[in-house]
Design brief:
This protein is of the alpha/beta class. The chain is 52% helix and 12% strand. It contains twelve helices and eight strands. An eight-stranded mixed β-sheet has the order 3-2-4-1-5-6-7-8, with helices on both faces. Strand 6, helix 11 and strand 7 form a beta-alpha-beta unit. Pfam families: SRP54 (PF00448), SRP54_N (PF02881).
Length: 325
C-alpha cells in the first residue's frame, strides 16, 4: 500500500467513524442522559443502580433476555471486584456488551468478498429478504456500491416482482452505481429472474450477485415456498447458492424488528443481518439484542442516507461509539 492509499484509507476510516458517531447520537443522548440521572449522588454500583440500569437497557430496546444477561455479567463483576464505583459503570458495561457479542461475531460471508481475489470461479450469491419498508432495496444498492467501489463485478436481480416500485428502484440503483440489473418487470416469476441473474453473473465472471426478493410476511407458508423455489432454481446454475441469506431489518422499529427477525428465521435459513435506519432512532440498542438472541451475525448497519453510510458491523467499534460522550 502506497502512502497516498494509506492516507486515503485513513480518511475514509475517519469519515466512517464520524458517520457512525452521528448516526448513534439519538441513542447515546437518550441512554446516557437517563444513566447520569440514575447514578446521580451514588458512589457504588449497588442493587438500586443495577435495577435502574436494567430499565434503561430495556428502554433502549436491547430486549429483556439480553438485558438480563448483561446485568448478570455486571453482578458477577461487582461480586468479584467487591467494590465498583458508578464512575466505572460505563467501562464495565461497554466491556460486558462487547464480550456478549464476541461469541456471535463473524468476518466471513459477504463481508469477506472485499478480501477475496477477483473472479474466484463463480459468483458469491446473496439473497436479500425482509418486509417492505425496511430499506431492503436501498440496502442492496448500497451494498452494490460498496463492492463496485472496491473493484468487484456485481450483478443485481430484481426478483421482488410484486411491487413495481421495487423493480424500478433497483434499476435506478443499478444505473447510479454502474452495475447491471436483471429484471423481467412486475408480476413475473421471481425464480426466473434469480436464475437469469445468477446465469449472467457466471457469464460475465462476476464476483457477487445480489438478489432482491418480495417482502411479504402475511403468509409464512407462501413466503417459505417462494424463497425455497428461488433457491432451487439458482442451484441449477450454482449448486451451493445462495451463499448468504441477508435479512434486512429497520432498527427504528425496535422490538418489532426482533419479532420480524424471528418470523423470517422460521421461514428461511437466515445467515446474516443488516440493520438499517439507526440514525433516526433512539433504539440503537436493538442491534445488541437481535445479535444476541438470534445468534445470527450482524454484517451491516445503516447510519445515514449516503451510499457510504451502510457500514460493516464491528462489535467493538459499535459499542465504543455508543459509549462515546
Amino acid at each position: 500500500m502506497g502512502l497516498f492509499d494509506f492516507f486515503k484509507k485513513d480518511k475514509e476510516s475517519q469519515q466512517q467513524q464520524q458517520a457512525l458517531d452521528e448516526g448513534l447520537q439519538k441513542t447515546k443522548t437518550s441512554f446516557f442522559d437517563q444513566l447520569s440521572k440514575a447514578v446521580a449522588g451514588r458512589n457504588t454500583v449497588d442493587e438500586a443502580v443495577l435495577d435502574d440500569l436494567e430499565t434503561l437497557l430495556v428502554h433502549a430496546d436491547v430486549g429483556i433476555d439480553t438485558t438480563v444477561k448483561v446485568i448478570e455479567r455486571i453482578e458477577k463483576r461487582v461480586a468479584r471486584d467487591k467494590y465498583v464505583s458508578t464512575g466505572d459503570l460505563d467501562r464495565i458495561l461497554r466491556e460486558e456488551i462487547v464480550a456478549l457479542l464476541d461469541a456471535n461475531s463473524s468476518a466471513t460471508g459477504s463481508r469477506a468478498i472485499l478480501d477475496r481475489p477477483d473472479s474466484p470461479g463463480s459468483p458469491f450469491v446473496i439473497m436479500v429478504v425482509g418486509v417492505n419498508g425496511v430499506g431492503k432495496t436501498t440496502t442492496i444498492g448500497k451494498l452494490a456500491h460498496r463492492f463496485h467501489s472496491a473493484g468487484k463485478k456485481v450483478v443485481l436481480g430484481a426478483a421482488d416482482t410484486f411491487r413495481a416500485a421495487a423493480v424500478d428502484q433497483l434499476i435506478i440503483w443499478g444505473e447510479r452505481v454502474g452495475v447491471p440489473v436483471i429484471s423481467h418487470g412486475m408480476n413475473t416469476d421471481p425464480a426466473a429472474v434469480a436464475f437469469d441473474a445468477v446465469q449472467k453473473g457466471v457469464e460475465m465472471g462476476a464476483d457477487v450477485v445480489i438478489i432482491d426478493t418480495a417482502g411479504r410476511l402475511h403468509n409464512k407458508v407462501n413466503l417459505m415456498n417462494e424463497l425455497s423455489k428461488i433457491k432451487r432454481v439458482m442451484q441449477k446454475v450454482i449448486p451451493d447458492a445462495p451463499h448468504e441469506v441477508l435479512l434486512v431489518l429497520d432498527g427504528s422499529t425496535g422490538q418489532n424488528a426482533f419479532l420480524q427477525a424471528k418470523e423470517f428465521t422460521k421461514a428461511t435459513e437466515v445467515s446474516a443481518l443488516a440493520i438499517t435506519k439507526l440514525d433516526g432512532t433512539a433504539k440503537g440498542g436493538v442491534v445488541i439484542g437481535i445479535s444476541d438472541q438470534l445468534q445470527v451475525p450482524v454484517r451491516y448497519i445503516g447510519v445515514g442516507e449516503k451510499m457510504t453510510d451502510l457500514q460493516l458491523f464491528d462489535r467493538t467499534t459499535f459499542v465504543n461509539s455508543l459509549f462515546k460522550k
